[in-house]
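Input record (Table S2, row 569):
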Amino acid sequence: MKRTELFTKTSKTTPASEVAKNAQLLIRAGYVHKETAGVYAYLPLGLRVLEKIKGIVREEMDAIGGQEVLMTTLQPRDVWEKTNRWDDAVVDNWFKTKLKNGTELGVGLTHEEPIVDALTPYVDSYKDLPLYIYQIGTKFRNELRAKSGILRGREFVMKDMYSFARTQTEHTELYEKAATAYTKVYERVGIGAETYRAAADGGYFTDKYSDEYQMLSDIGEDTVLHVPETDLWYNEEIAPSKAPKIITHESEQPMEMVEGRGLIGVEPLAKFLKIPVEKTTKTMLYETDGGKIVAAAVRGGYEINEIKLRKILNVKTLKLADEATVRRVTGAEIGYAGLLNLSKEVRVIIDESCASRTNFEMGSNQTNTHTINVNWGRDLPLPKEFYDIKMARPNDIHPDSGKVYKAHRSIEVGNIFSLESKYSDALDLYYVDENGERQSIIMGCYGIGVSRIMGAIVEKFADAKGLIWPENIAPFKVYLINVGTDENVVKITTKLYLDLSKMGIEVLWDDRDVHPGEKFADADLLGIPHRVVVSPKTIQNDMVEYKARTSDQATVLTMAELCKKVSCI
Ligand code: ATP
Ligand code: MG
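Output record (magnesium ion complex):
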């Protein structure tokens, strides 16, 4: 393609409304057009990148036997009600719309329910399974914050695949096969070296963990914890953790009540009591299934991890107890809860970080009062069991290996889940086995953020001069520049353009009548992997100048050398 035929132009100014590097560069380079926050249109160059990522994803899903479909954006309410996912209180990022007659419709944010529903006329026998069904399409999510450019769109492109298996064993095979395909996708799009499979929360419908694919990046919104020298990675939201031990040789001091008004949070409390934060205790009261009350305690400096707590309690609902409940079980206002003199109806779950302490602080269950010098066995019975209910912190210990975690920021570029049979059962999709018995279908689902990968790649590789695309997803392979309009230069450039194109190499020829400096700057900004320059000087020796986008060094090549180089890459 010739630059003079491309309607987009580049810009030197950074769009004022964008804070994310990916959006700034993609807009400046004319790859995307911003409609509104989190909503971007893909222009010719941007679309070429997106389509290449889609192409790689499609090939890998096809390679494991995936069948492609295209589900609808408009979603009828009833299918989602069957799984209790219509209610905004359950799924909080729905976009919803209405027909003229007032009927409510959802705007597709994921497609488990409609996919299962679409299979019901076709799948009823063990002979119909197993299956992988996938689509690549636009998802809509009413994201609270959309400041990260195409990393977090309110409208974005996802590949979502769903697997349907007859048994758990078959499901595990499908799951692992899909995981291998995912690894290939990340390698092929150019982020294999920085993308890791990390254990993460399993979401609403399963007690199992899911696996996220996390690309390490300082601008990422997620934190993953790595166990050094292993391939164990965890999203911090579920990472099992042991707190570093507190070594103390103090003798037990008499327990004491201290008045302290309006001290919210462990930091001000520690300061006021003149004790280290880790001597304080954070106790939170929760209400769970059937109105049962739970007190969860972690050592000061940690937060309670509700995912872990929910798993230990084996409950579906877990919400902070309201003020009246707190008053009833503690006798105090919110903020003074502790484990001393707590109502018997409360189940207590104590994190292991609280264990190895002497003379610690504890809420008194009396308004404006705190207790210090509390000790296990003397003031509080030593619990039969300590649990792990805390949000892991970077210097925590991985319990199984005893190694200290290393924390990294990361971008979630994919997520795969085991769904059990919750969706299939709820939507009445069963199969009849060899013995004529009706059986549940075990599902998995597998998402890849296609447009997010594009943004993540910009963030990862771009430099001060502009975008840098990995070879496989670049919109064009070669950026061809003619310097000046000398007849011979143009003739040779035209021939090179045609020859390379004939070889199947995608060339963007900057044939504009502009200063060479402008062309060089655009070559860098657009991020096309190989720059080839034809100038009055190079043609004297029948040569061209070649430079990789990632290199500062230009070299001079013969035409034959160039063709060899670009066709081999
Ligand atoms: P996040 O935690 O980032 O909001 P999610 O866990 O809700 O994402 P999934 O439902 O797991 O997202 O979706 C599958 C994949 O789709 C994600 O791994 C991510 O790569 C991508 N994705 C999710 N939300 C967005 C979004 N708003 N914009 C772009 N890509 C997204
Ligand atoms: Mg996810």
